[in-house]
Amino acid sequence: MKPFYQYDIHLPLNMDPDKKYPVVFTLHGKGSNEKNMFGLVAPLADDFIIIGIRGNLLLGSGYQYYDLKSLGNPIREMFDEAAKQLEAFIYYATEKYPIDPGKRYLLGFSQGAILSMTLALTMGEELKGIVSLNGYVPDFVKTEYPLRSVKDVSVFISHGEYDSVFPVRIGHETASYFKNLAPRLTFNLYPTDHGVSEENQIDFLNWLMQDTGLTTTKE
């Protein structure tokens, strides 16, 4: 099978050939690329397989996974296709690489966060957890998609208090939506615009390590 998406993969340097590893799939924002996401998760590279998935649609010097009618209003057919193809890619990568299927994580920023939350809702416990940075869940996903339980999915949602693309109200609404569905929810606000601060990065890295059972949070 030829994968639908181009991707960048980082395998742990000293891999045990008899071991399966946790994986973080990264999903970039609109107009960005998979290599820009690696810096956010590079400290995990000794313990995780890291796979950056590149959007298939050119946008300026970068890429996107789907196009928009207007801000916050995805073109439905393109969004549906992205959700379907990303799920297929996750299964493809799990077969191809020594990935522990019980420890699959998605980490997305902006458009990638939107898709990460959507996939959590459609894949359920097929994912161990997601990190959603400055995103939202489209209304049509909530009302029209076939949703699965996320009660066993770990969910980390963060949002910038001064986000000029998706106002902080959207972060609160998104967290409220997941609060009723995901007991393992962490929601944090950071004093940033539409971006990821160092504090935000440290928090989700520690969260991922803890959730995987690899270490405890550093004081």
UniProtKB/TrEMBL annotation:
Q: Does the keyword NADP apply?
A: no
Organism's domain of life? Bacteria
Q: Which UniProt keywords apply?
A: Hydrolase
InterPro entries noted in UniProt? AB_hydrolase_fold, LYPA1-2/EST-like, PLipase/COase/thioEstase
Limits of the Phospholipase/carboxylesterase/thioesterase domain = 19-199
Q: Which PANTHER family match?
A: LYSOPHOSPHOLIPASE-LIKE PROTEIN 1, LYSOPHOSPHOLIPASE-RELATED
Q: Which family does it belong to?
A: Belongs to the AB hydrolase superfamily. AB hydrolase 2 family.
**Name of the protein this chain belongs to:** Esterase
Which taxonomic lineage is given here?
A: Bacteria, Bacillati, Bacillota, Bacilli, Bacillales
